[in-house]
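Project channel, design review

CF: Before we commit to the Rhizobium sullae constructs, I'd like one complete example in the thread so the newer folks can see what an input/output pair looks like. Taking Maltose alpha-D-glucosyltransferase/alpha-amylase.
RD: sounds good, go ahead.
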Amino acid sequence: MLLRYAGPTPVIDLWYKSAVIYSLNVATFMDSDGDGIGDFKGLTDQLDYIARLGVTCLWLLPFYPSPRMDYGYDVTDYYNVAPELGTLGDFVEFSHQAGLRGLKLLIDLPINHTSEQHPWFQQARSHPHSRYRDYYVWSKEQPANANHGMAFPGHQSSVWSYDPRARAWYYHRFYPHQPDLNIANPAVKEEIFKIVGFWLELGISGFRIDAAPFVVEEVRANQATCRHYEFFGELRDFLSWRRGDSVLLAEANVPPKEMLHFFGDGSRLHMLFAFLPNQHLYHALASSRAAVLAQGLARLPKLPQLCQWVQFLRNHDELDLSRLTEKGRKEVYEAFAPDADMRLYKRGIRRRLAPMLDNDRARIELAFSLMFSLPGIPTIYYGDELGMGDDLGLPERWPVRTCMQWSDDNNAGFSTCSEEHLIHPAIVDGTNGARRINVETQQRDPRSLLNWVRRLVDARQSCPEVGWGTWAHIETDNQAVFAQRFTSEQNSLLILHNLASRSCRVRLDRETGKAGDLIELFGNRVYSANSSDGAIVELDALGYRWFRIGQ
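CF: and here is what came back for Maltose alpha-D-glucosyltransferase/alpha-amylase:
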């Protein structure tokens, strides 16, 4: 949909307001040459699979040259493709083929830090008067607050490390091999603009900004930090100048009062991941209390007109529960991560969606339907559309990063290499292994989770009110039923989810019940014609129903 302004201002393409995103790592998606590492040629070969899901946008995790000590988020060259993943030519062909299928491309932009092996850092540490010295944050003495603000509690001992070559301490919000860039340095900003401009020329439609709160954080030893949110406005202006339909999506798990700093008046970031609803969704599933999710959504600030929330169930990191109360976290842990090795960083869960929900198809569908119906746009993490599992034998966040399961062949059909050469393990055996869970098998089964997800995506695409309309929580007479209404200029949508393990007949409020006939669009099954009369709606245990309200 295009929004036009009077006068010389160019047309603004708001494609992102109703997008459906699919997130993947090139290295673990499809290997085309048998070396055990996914690549752009393999990804290009599987674009038809992605397009058939009905998604409209791909978010690629980092694919730059990197030592890969942190899943590619430790970059050594922002202007190239990691050689094991292909060439820039392969990327351009991939970008072209994605465009032919109507797919927008978002790529990860890890600009909070670089790898310690990046030439900038190597130059910075070599001499105190190097032009790159101020690209990073240094201190001659060990700062008193060296243990404050660690990103990975229990796996990180400090945010300042001593570099013998530099004879100074350098700041790293994350691991020691990831020194933070100094955003207060204008030269660093110019480098970022050049990187962004380069990839826009190769056909991408935007960037996912990793660790956004820390990107704009100005750090000085033994001083209070401050954040330069205006940088996002400068970056937005640059994008708009270079490519009008390009967007910025940010990872910012911050309190509600800070969220609007990232949007500004609508002139900074286009989108934020909705961490708060994500955490409250799991709390609602664990407790069967709809009010928990309603309260989480109510805490979100009102968005500027041209901005959007991005909803998700899982991603490549831990399921972060830090915004819940201690009691809420405990309930979620007990329900979805009862064992200590399922938990991480004293705040999260390191499991995939399907095993977390005990591989219960009804619960998986309920979770997907809930997420797809929340205000904003939905994201699917690769493999969740199949019910892929996790490998808890892997360290930290790695259990959810196994290879895509294409078939029941060796290595889950991901690669023809010998198993020991795989970049990451493939789960072959067990409940969620490729012997049982794979694309090839599910594509042939009309009742499979994969084909159900395709139908869900199709239903969501037919309901633009979720991305564009005004959201309202609807009170019912059942505390386990989450009911919401979306209203646009022309249409209204009513969506109900039963979080309880028992069926019910739910009475809607008087206004909703009198709004008009309920036209069923999507549900966990085909309900009888008399299962809703406008005021009372029947719902199965863990059931869900999407209605358009006839006027």
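RD: helpful, thanks. Residues 186-201 form the longest helix (16 residues).
CF: The chain has three domains: 15-112+186-460, 119-171, 466-549.
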